[in-house]
Design a protein that fits this description.
nine-stranded mixed sheet, globular, 27% strand, alpha+beta
Length: 317
């Protein structure tokens, strides 16, 4: 009987608010219940979300006046997204004070815990180092104001104080943070310098990918060619917006995917020749106004060994 009672407490039913009419089902569930899009999509896929009593696809649009029934995750499931102190090899602190901590994230590390991810995270690594972070934000990503993909290395800033969290979130939203990446892409972009202004949303047929989609969220990427090699180019990229997989999606849309990015169509044989097991993409520089002092600060990260070696090989060709 106890299990049945728990299920009743976890089930919510409500009419679709007018402001969510026309929104994707997973996006609406995330907005209504303060969940991440990943968690909301998983609930829909499991059949834990019903629209007028019927299970629907996560990409289906909600109609005005529909009745939504959602069975939220059991309390025990919170263990999947708990931040547990865990030493993370290669994670280093570039700068730390009472307001912020800037880290150099190695590849293979997620920004924060999420359902289904059992690998290391920046937050668990910081906890193991004795670093405390702001309590603002969802429980599994407190202090996180921006993220890097698991396979992307480089600089991330995490808020340690509540004032820093609020100020940095505003700065990222207002596009006042200077985010510079270096990427090696296949081929030679034409023109060698340009801007990609193309909206991004979830891929219409592939659950774990994103794509340039009409009606998606605004995404703007500025790029400049630094070096050209045989069959590849080293680019400096400045992000004006910060969409999931933005650089990878935009470069793939230009038919110049990041070298080693097999998810977005890169040539696996080239990655093998360069010894790459991930995309050649690195968060090289990060600049912003310090949320405590009001002074501009800037940080820079060297290439990690795998990317530096791939670059050496390309130059030798």
């Amino acid at each position: 009987m106890a299990d049945s009672s728990t299920e009743q407490q976890d089930r919510r039913a409500l009419p679709v608010p007018d402001g969510l009419a026309g929104m994707r089902l997973d996006q609406a569930v995330a907005r209504l219940f303060g969940l991440s899009r990943t968690v909301a999509a998983a609930l829909v896929d499991r059949g834990d979300v019903l629209v007028d009593g019927v299970a629907r696809a996560k990409s289906d649009k909600l109609g005005a006046g529909a009745w939504l029934e959602v069975t939220l995750p059991r309390p025990a499931a919170a263990a999947e997204t708990a931040v547990v102190p865990r030493a993370v090899a290669g994670l280093s602190i570039v700068y730390s004070d009472v307001d912020i901590v800037v880290v150099d994230k190695p590849p293979g590390v997620a920004a924060h815990p999420s359902p289904g991810w059992t690998g290391p995270t920046v937050l668990s690594g910081l906890a193991a180092m004795g670093q405390t972070v702001a309590t603002s934000g969802a429980a599994e990503r407190q202090g996180i104001v921006h993220r890097l993909d698991v396979g992307t290395s480089g600089l991330m800033v995490v808020a340690k104080s509540e004032r820093a969290y609020s100020a940095l979130k505003r700065a990222f939203k207002a596009r006042q943070v200077d985010k510079i990446y270096h990427a090696v892409v296949q081929g030679h972009p034409d023109p060698l310098r340009g801007t990609i202004d193309a909206p991004i949303d979830r891929h219409p047929t592939s659950e774990y990918k994103w794509a340039v989609v009409s009606g998606g969220r605004e995404a703007i990427t500025h790029y400049d060619t630094l070096e050209a090699f045989r069959g590849a180019s080293l680019l400096q990229i400045r992000l004006e917006t910060g969409r999931t997989h933005q650089i990878r999606v935009h470069m793939a849309a230009l038919r110049h995917p990041c070298v080693g990015d097999l998810t977005y169509g890169a040539d696996p044989s080239l990655a093998e020749r360069l010894g790459l097991k991930r995309q050649w993409l690195h968060a090289k520089e990060l600049g912003f106004v310090h949320p405590g002092t009001g002074d501009p600060v800037r940080f820079e990260s060297p290439y990690p060994d795998d990317l530096a070696e791939a670059l050496r090989i390309l130059r030798s060709w």
